[in-house]
């Protein structure tokens, strides 16, 4: 049996399974080609059932090598496509997804381990071991607090972003086109507490990041690119590279072997170079605006992965419109001098008008900031002013 | 008497609270905010979003992404959107859309820029008031009215007060009219940057650090040229520079009237320029900003102002108390302790290409009807300044007026 036939047979099996049984009693995934359904559960992508946030049949979870920082929230990302459709691989850009694709991203926090706590306390931790019920399974609701689920839906005329906010009972998430603000307290592994406003973006703010090109203003998913997905994921039937897995289940065509696909570093991987880690971090946190066509192409500063490591990425570059965001520093990056550089100054601020990214967080990502500082500290060169 | 005691006690308590908590938002304001946001989301081409008179406190920046929308208040002192205590920003209103009109309302105290229009054609801003109500502070938002990468832009009959960078800042745009505005107590009153074909007229710029600026910055999508600054009142722009270091305008000395930096084809005429204590007109190069360095500036960037034509202005006073030790020393050396800089100060940087052979006639700096020009000799640290006006006695072809197309309907 050729591989192609084997894949076809596999798809057939999945299709049959879809027909004969519902996953966890869920209705089949419903793609709405118009409007804004009032509840997340109207889509049947992820649902709170039996103490878990369950993923429906055909809903495939994925992670990114280096994710966007969102106030230390943990995230469950999923992708679903209609039967017999698949995305086309692209080595640099977002994959070309078929009409009907639904991408979901659920933002949640593990609960602090201590018994005594306030209802608005959430854990600040990188430990994900209590999040999932098991490999390839849904989230264990007893251990987490669900905040919001954002959907990106590929309709005939393009992608649409639809935000949902989880109710207090954690039974469903409700449409929140104008976003939400929730006062929460991060509780560190060491017990340290930090009050902050968790901000659910409004629908228009979704576009701020997802419109990769501010002239066409068309939305795009940011994560599903080869360099972010070229990594392993613990699926129910074992660990597998995400590009391989998506190809195997029929969701992706044209992908090369993982070794031949680009791969961003994991920003926390201490075996990788500062350079690779910092560039991956800047790519996912800044590159959606700071690219040649994005919202921040007014600044002359580009931070996506393809940017050469020169003035374009900020080396000795005078700021253009930073305003009070300069922090009295003269250049975006002064090699060897992170504390004289604007980029870490703005990453280290949580004040609107000063902080970068402009939206999407209310707290400072200490570990991310430390990485960028270390990266700049290791650079050489000088910004001697000419007269 | 008792009341006074209580007030005193309260006023003593206030500073002791330390970190200022964000003011609570009333139920009414919260519901106004979410309704307004919903209207912006639901707007269709042709929609008019009327905002009735009232003072509204908003916690989150607004945004609009639909073409052909008009936002209209009941007047710049009647409809007030206050962002004091804003928690989500950075702007007051961010627009990424064509055929946009906004008129007759006020935006106050935004953490970042008040109104930013990023990429759009046919933009009309009419009768707005933008204000940071605590006066000039470096923590104020950077820009008041900020169209960037826009085409066919009209900014008129508006007032901007307190921006920590530029009050009205049109950047990387084409075909621009800025008229009948008042810019006060900003670092830069009005700034045209990396823009092509701009007319700036009938404006009043006073009490800023610099009144009207025409700049070209490096590393951007286009180099600016062809700006006419005429029939403005630019007086007493002597507010100490309160921009944070690193910002382009942080290099502007307090007491600057009209400043051209590294831009080309700028015509300055028929203005009333008075009492700007560094100089009524400054013509300078990017070298004088102290940011020029080899690694950080694109090699094709041209830092030399070329084709600058200053004539028929009415100058009065000014130049008597320049900002900063270097300029004070220069003034004293050339004009004496009680003397003044002349109407026009030029930093003296010349394109090396033009030093060998004289510049092409259209690239010259021509100055008429001024009481003098000082070539400050910036390249040599002001060592050999000269006051000879002969090199500037020339004229340049006049620029055509800017014609907005289509004409705005306001």
Question: Could you provide a short overview of the structure?
Answer:
Chain B: InterPro entries: Beta_helix (IPR039448), PbH1 (IPR006626), Pectin_lyas_fold (IPR012334), Pectin_lyase_fold/virulence (IPR011050), SO_2930-like_dom (IPR022442). Chain A has 387 residues and is an alpha+beta fold.
Question: How would you sum up this structure, described in words?
Answer:
Chain B: It holds the Pfam family Beta_helix. Chain B: It comes from Dyella nitratireducens. Chain B: This is Right handed beta helix domain-containing protein. The complex is a heterodimer of chains A (387) and B (410). Helices cover 18% and strands 22% of the residues of chain A. Chain A has helices spanning 3-20, 203-210, 226-229, 242-248, 274-286, 342-347, 366-377, and strands at 46-49, 52-55, 60-62, 74-80, 87-88, 102-110, 121-124, 139-140, 144-155, 158-166, 173-175, 180-188, 193-200, 232-235, 238-241, 252-253. In chain A, the strands form five sheets. In chain A, strands 3-4-6-9-10-11 form a six-stranded antiparallel β-sheet, covered by helices on one side. With 410 residues, chain B is mostly beta strands. Chain B contains four helices and 28 strands. Chain B is globular. Classes of the chains: A alpha+beta (387), B mainly beta (410). Chains A and B meet through α2 of A and α2, β3, β6 and β9 of B.
């Amino acid at each position: 049996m050729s591989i192609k036939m084997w894949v076809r047979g596999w798809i057939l099996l999945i299709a049959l399974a879809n027909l004969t049984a519902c996953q966890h009693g869920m209705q089949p995934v419903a793609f709405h080609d118009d409007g804004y359904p009032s509840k997340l559960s109207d889509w049947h992508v992820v649902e709170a059932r039996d103490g878990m946030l369950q993923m429906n049949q055909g809903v495939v979870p994925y992670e990114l090598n280096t994710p966007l920082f969102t106030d230390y929230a943990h995230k469950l990302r999923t992708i679903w496509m209609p039967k017999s459709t698949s995305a086309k691989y692209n080595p640099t850009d977002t994959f070309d997804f078929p009409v009907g694709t639904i991408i979901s991203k659920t933002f949640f926090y593990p609960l602090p381990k201590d018994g005594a706590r306030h209802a608005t306390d959430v854990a600040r931790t990188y430990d994900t071991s209590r999040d999932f019920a098991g490999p390839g399974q849904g989230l264990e609701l007893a251990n987490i607090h669900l905040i919001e689920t954002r959907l990106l839906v590929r309709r005939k005329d393009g992608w649409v972003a639809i935000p949902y906010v989880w109710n207090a009972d954690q039974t469903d998430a409700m449409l929140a086109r104008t976003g939400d603000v929730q006062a929460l307290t991060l509780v560190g592994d060491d017990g340290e507490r930090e009050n902050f406003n968790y901000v659910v973006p409004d629908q228009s703010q979704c576009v701020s990041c997802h419109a990769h090109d501010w002239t066409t203003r068309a939305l795009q998913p940011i994560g599903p690119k080869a360099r972010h997905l070229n990594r392993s994921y613990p699926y129910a039937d074992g660990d597998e590279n995400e590009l391989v897995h998506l190809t195997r289940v029929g969701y992706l065509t044209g992908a090369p072997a993982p070794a031949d696909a680009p791969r961003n570093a994991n920003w926390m991987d201490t075996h990788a170079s500062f350079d690779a880690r910092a560039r991956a971090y800047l790519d996912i946190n800044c590159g959606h605006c700071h690219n040649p066509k994005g919202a921040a192409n007014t600044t002359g500063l580009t931070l996506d992965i393809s940017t050469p490591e020169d003035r374009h990425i900020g080396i000795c570059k005078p700021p253009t419109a930073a305003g009070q965001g300069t922090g009295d520093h003269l250049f975006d990056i002064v090699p060897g001098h992170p504390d004289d550089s604007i980029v870490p100054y703005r990453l280290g601020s949580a004040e609107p008008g000063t902080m970068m990214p402009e939206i999407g967080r209310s707290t400072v990502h200490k570990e991310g900031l430390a990485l960028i500082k270390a990266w700049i500290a290791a650079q050489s060169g000088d910004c001697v002013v000419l007269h | 008497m008792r009341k006074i005691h209580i007030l005193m006690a309260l006023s003593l308590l206030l500073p002791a609270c330390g970190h200022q908590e964000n003011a609570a938002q009333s139920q009414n304001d919260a519901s106004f905010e979410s309704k307004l946001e919903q209207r912006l989301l639901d707007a269709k081409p042709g929609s008019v979003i009327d905002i009735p008179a009232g003072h509204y406190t908003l916690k989150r920046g607004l945004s609009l992404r639909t073409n052909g929308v008009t936002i209209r208040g009941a007047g710049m002192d009647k409809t007030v959107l206050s962002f004091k205590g804003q928690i989500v920003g950075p702007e007051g209103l961010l627009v990424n859309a064509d055929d946009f009109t906004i008129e007759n309302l006020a935006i106050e105290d935004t953490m970042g820029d008040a109104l930013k229009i990023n990429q759009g054609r046919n933009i009309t801003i009419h009768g707005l008031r933008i204000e940071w109500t605590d006066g000039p502070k470096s923590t104020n938002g950077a820009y008041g009215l900020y169209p960037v990468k826009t085409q066919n832009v009209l900014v008129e009959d508006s007032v901007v007060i307190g921006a920590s960078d530029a009050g009205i800042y049109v950047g990387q745009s084409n075909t621009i009219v800025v008229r009948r505005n008042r810019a006060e107590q900003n670092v830069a009153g009005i700034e045209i940057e990396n823009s092509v074909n701009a007319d700036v007229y009938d404006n009043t710029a006073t009490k800023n650090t610099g009144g009207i600026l025409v700049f070209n910055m490096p590393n951007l999508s286009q180099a600016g040229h062809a700006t006419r600054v005429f029939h403005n009142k630019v007086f007493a722009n002597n507010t100490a520079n309160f921009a944070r270091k690193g910002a382009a305008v942080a290099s502007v000395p307090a007491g600057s009237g009209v400043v051209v930096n590294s831009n080309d084809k700028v015509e300055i005429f028929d203005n009333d320029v008075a009492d700007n204590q560094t100089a009524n007109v400054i013509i300078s190069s990017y070298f004088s900003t102290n940011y020029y360095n080899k690694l950080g500036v694109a090699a094709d960037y041209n830092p030399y102002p070329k084709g600058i034509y200053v004539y028929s202005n009415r100058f009065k006073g000014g130049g008597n108390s320049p900002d900063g030790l270097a300029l004070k020393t220069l003034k004293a050396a050339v004009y004496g302790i009680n003397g003044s800089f002349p109407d026009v100060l030029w930093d003296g940087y010349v394109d090396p290409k033009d030093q060998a052979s004289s510049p092409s006639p259209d690239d010259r700096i021509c100055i008429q009807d001024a009481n003098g020009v000082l070539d400050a000799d910036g390249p040599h640290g002001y060592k050999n300044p000269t006051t000879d006006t002969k090199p500037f006695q020339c004229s340049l072809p006049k620029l055509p007026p800017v014609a907005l197309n289509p004409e705005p309907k306001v």
